[in-house]
Task: inverse folding
């Protein structure tokens, strides 16, 4: 597999043929999902026009090219980055204030006194109070991004909360459902280890207030969030989580990407049940690669991430991610032993120094599972079920 890719070669040479997350605006696929839009092509499935797509996927970027606004039609949208402290190793989280009507926050930070104080003070520095907020838009439902949503909403009294339907962290804890247990035990995780991780995430889940089904509005791919000076287009960019979303200001090609694009670190493809079929794992890495290509099609001039400073050279980040994923793929495949290995085995070999530290164990297991699933979907390795546990073989 080559390490670098020309713009028109990425989809054809790297994104898996069986996992193009195209949508009806650009392709004639009809793959069922909750909102009725097109969904990732599944291995072994017959999805009609998907064959046409894969045959022409070298033109991926070209038919996604957007119409650009003339320079005299561009109005500056007031986007203010606010750095909010978190108790996590990743450090501060970025909250984005859209300071125009309707006043909007994209992400809010964790539910801690320190984060609430910092958010209140930094909004005040920009002449905004919680009561002025009219919309709370969540890139995804991890605690460092969504924890204060209910508190801000309650103080604002009539603010809307918007999040994609495939997110679950605002409804229940990360490992709280029986599907999580089944999927991780099938990956070779010992029951005692799962229980330890579940206990840890039960504590972490206290950093967000659960929402009821009627407390939020669903974000949909391609919907527009209207503002006084223009709009942000919602981009469903799954991978880090199934419902992760980014937001594009097409007038100047500015994107707010949550944890899909981070300048200093590569996002973790967190293991999750598939929103369409919870008995299966969500193909997080394959979906993430498609999301990267989707963002790249907008030719971003500025990409705001969920942590750290903005990205001003998306092409450099894109190619760095591709090289890192390619290298990790090789490492993971090399770690499979002659008599076969589980994802849990690979995670321990891949991250021997950090495997038993706090959330790092779950993230290590997620990383291993994602890469093994991707390699298996590409035919690089095989997998078989033995006594209910998946064994990967070269």
Result:
């Amino acid at each position: 597999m080559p390490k670098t890719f020309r713009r028109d070669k990425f989809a054809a040479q790297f994104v898996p043929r069986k996992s193009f997350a195209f949508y009806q605006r650009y392709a004639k696929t009809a793959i069922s999902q909750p909102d009725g839009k097109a969904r990732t092509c599944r291995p072994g499935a017959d999805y009609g026009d998907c064959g046409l797509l894969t045959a022409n996927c070298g033109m991926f970027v070209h038919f996604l090219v957007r119409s650009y606004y003339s320079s005299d039609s561009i109005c500056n949208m007031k986007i203010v980055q606010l750095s909010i402290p978190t108790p996590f190793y990743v450090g501060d989280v970025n909250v984005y204030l859209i300071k125009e009507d309707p006043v909007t926050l994209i992400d809010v930070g964790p539910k801690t006194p320190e984060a609430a104080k910092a958010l209140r003070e930094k909004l005040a520095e920009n002449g905004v109070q919680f009561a002025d907020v009219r919309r709370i838009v969540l890139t995804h439902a991890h605690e460092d991004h969504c924890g204060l949503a209910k508190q801000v909403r309650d103080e604002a009294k009539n603010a809307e909360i918007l999040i994609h339907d495939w997110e679950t962290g605002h409804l229940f804890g990360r490992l709280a459902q029986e599907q999580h247990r089944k999927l991780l035990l099938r990956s070779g995780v010992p029951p005692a280890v799962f229980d330890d991780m579940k206990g840890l995430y039960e504590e972490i889940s206290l950093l967000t207030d659960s929402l009821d089904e009627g407390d939020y509005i669903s974000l949909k791919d391609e919907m527009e969030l209207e503002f006084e000076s223009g709009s942000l287009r919602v981009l469903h960019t799954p991978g880090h989580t199934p419902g992760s979303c980014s937001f594009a200001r097409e007038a100047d090609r500015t994107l707010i990407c949550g944890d899909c694009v981070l300048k200093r670190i590569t996002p973790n493809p967190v293991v999750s049940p598939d929103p369409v079929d919870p008995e299966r794992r969500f193909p997080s890495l394959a979906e993430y690669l498609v999301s990267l290509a989707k963002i790249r099609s907008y030719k971003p001039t500025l990409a705001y991430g969920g942590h750290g400073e903005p990205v001003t050279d998306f092409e450099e980040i894109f190619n760095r991610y591709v090289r890192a994923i390619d290298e990790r793929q090789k490492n993971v495949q090399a770690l499979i032993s002659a008599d076969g290995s589980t994802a849990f085995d690979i995670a321990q070999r891949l991250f021997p120094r950090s495997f038993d530290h706090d959330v790092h164990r779950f993230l290590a297991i997620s990383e291993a599972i994602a890469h093994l699933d991707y390699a298996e979907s590409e035919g690089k390795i095989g997998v078989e079920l033995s006594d209910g546990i998946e064994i990967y073989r070269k």
